[in-house]
Amino acid sequence: MENNPSVLKKCHLFADIAENDLDALLGCLSAARRGYEKNAFIFQAEDKVFSVGVVLSGSVHVIQDDYWGNRSIFANIGQAGLFGEAFSCAEIEKLPVSVIAAEPAEILFIGYRKIITTCSNTCAFHTKLIKNMMRILARQNILLIQKMEFLSRRTTREKLLSYLSEQALQSKSSSFSIPFNRQELADYLCVDRSALSREMGIMQNEGLLRFNKNYFELLSVE
Amino acid sequence: MENNPSVLKKCHLFADIAENDLDALLGCLSAARRGYEKNAFIFQAEDKVFSVGVVLSGSVHVIQDDYWGNRSIFANIGQAGLFGEAFSCAEIEKLPVSVIAAEPAEILFIGYRKIITTCSNTCAFHTKLIKNMMRILARQNILLIQKMEFLSRRTTREKLLSYLSEQALQSKSSSFSIPFNRQELADYLCVDRSALSREMGIMQNEGLLRFNKNYFELLSVE
DNA sequence: TCTTCGCCGTTGCAAATACAACGTGCATTG
DNA sequence: CAATGCACGTTGTATTTGCAACGGCGAAGA
To answer: What's the pLDDT score for residue B120?
Structure first.
């Protein structure tokens, strides 16, 4: 695992804050860190949340399990990513989702009130933190809308293609890896795993794409 | 149409701001109002947006049309509601969605920069505006997650039931009206209209619900 | 080496869905 | 009153999907 400062520097919550100011700031925020093993629950649905989490190492999934055990994966959050910010900022009573460690992970928890309450007139950082938080919330909003674009498609093929196209755009390459195994990808796209597997096989036969495990390559059709 | 102040008072962007301060503030924000007829585009996908819109009267839909003409309705926004805030705050280059008037509507546009830039040390309102904006973005986030709960269901019946349950909760009654006609509801739930109609008929026969136009009544099963 | 376990592809089948087409009722308009 | 347009329900059909079950394969552990 990398040490804290270099990870936190990449976290958008601390954008435009000098690295040597971070230590003082973190003290002021009274942050706490904790490790989780794979599949451990970091937040549980129905919990009350008063803090946001920063992923120091590993990655987490924001999920929702329904009564029948069907799991939906809302988001995958990697190193330096933030989670729980919307629920903290909206001061919601009950968390509608859970957060689990997708792999062994270390999380830094920061009390939400500490972030948005200007501790004193001298601490100029909080103004910065609040603006950063606002931008994070806005971008999170847009990510959710992006995901809705995938879910709004009618067929598994269209869902998969819109997701993969987006991944290709983000990695600026027609070949890329995704942070999901097959079952997780199905849960993310809200389709059945075997139906997804079947469709992927057909698409590969048609020459639309190639894949191996979580590595994908989009092919141009002539 | 109601006059401005009484509508703006209900707008969360101006929460905790005294009504008689609103006039001065609006001048400072250099807001502009404009009317739209039904189905008129207020924002077009691919546009650049520098302002947020407040619905003074009527209502709007945030939509996305794909290449084949399939429309998805992301959100319905009624009086005193806000739209475009996420795209403005994230300073996105191109709008991924469009906004259209669901019925004749009057919109108040406010430049985003005017909102988040503290104009001078004496203007205390901007601090308030920024905190309000943060809460709005967070709540918007949660609304999007809520909608994803509908879309993540596998069948039309489950999508519809989860949506109607939510509406019943919000109206605190088992009977309520929704802001969509049949085609719009299908576009909102991302399913085919005729398939939705068929399923609704079956559910009514089974005694799960009753409906007439956009009025619904959820029935308890014994 | 053998066993176990998780991941993934495959397949059969019943159920659900999209799509296209049509009819009806109702409001608006000429 | 006739004509038009729109919203909505209905239906037939091909396609897609979820579900359950099975087998192969490779990694990890005994």
So the answer is: 59
Kindly report whether the global pTM for this prediction surpasses the value 0.90.
yes
Q: Is the pLDDT of residue A207 over 70?
A: yes
Contact B30, B64 (CB under 8 A): no
B168 CA from D2 C1′ (Å)? 44
CA B159 to chain A, closest CA, distance in angstroms equals: 12
Check which CATH number belongs to the domain holding A202 and give it: 1.10.10.10
Contact criterion met (CB below 8 Å) for A177 and A170: no
- Domain final residue, candidates B124, B150, B176: B150
Band of residue A1 on the pLDDT scale cut at 50, 70, 90: very low
Decide if B138 and A96 are in contact by the 8 Å CB cutoff: no
Q: Are residues B38 and B68 in the same domain?
A: yes
CA proximity to A91, closest of B131, B194, B206, B192: B131
Q: Which nucleotides of strand C lie within 7 A of protein CB?
A: 7-12, 16-21
Same domain, A135 and A194: no
- Report CA torsion sign: B180, B59, B144, A194: positive
CATH of the domain at A16: 2.60.120.10
pLDDT computed for residue B119 by the predictor:
64
Where a domain ends, among B120, B150, B180? B150
Q: Give the nearest chain A residue to B95 (CA atoms).
A: A142
Is A142–B90 a contact, with Cβ atoms under 8 angstroms apart? Answer: yes
For chain A, how many structural domains are there in total? 2
Q: Tell me the percentage of chain A whose pLDDT exceeds 90.
A: 76
3-state secondary structure of B64: strand
A184 shares a domain with A79: no
Nucleotide nearest to A205 (CA to C1'): C9
Half-sphere exposure of B168 (CA within 13 A, CB side): 15
Range of the domain at A178: 153-218
Residue A122 confidence (pLDDT): 53
Q: pLDDT tens digit string along A6-45?
A: 899 999 999 998 888 888 888 888 899 999 999 999 999 9
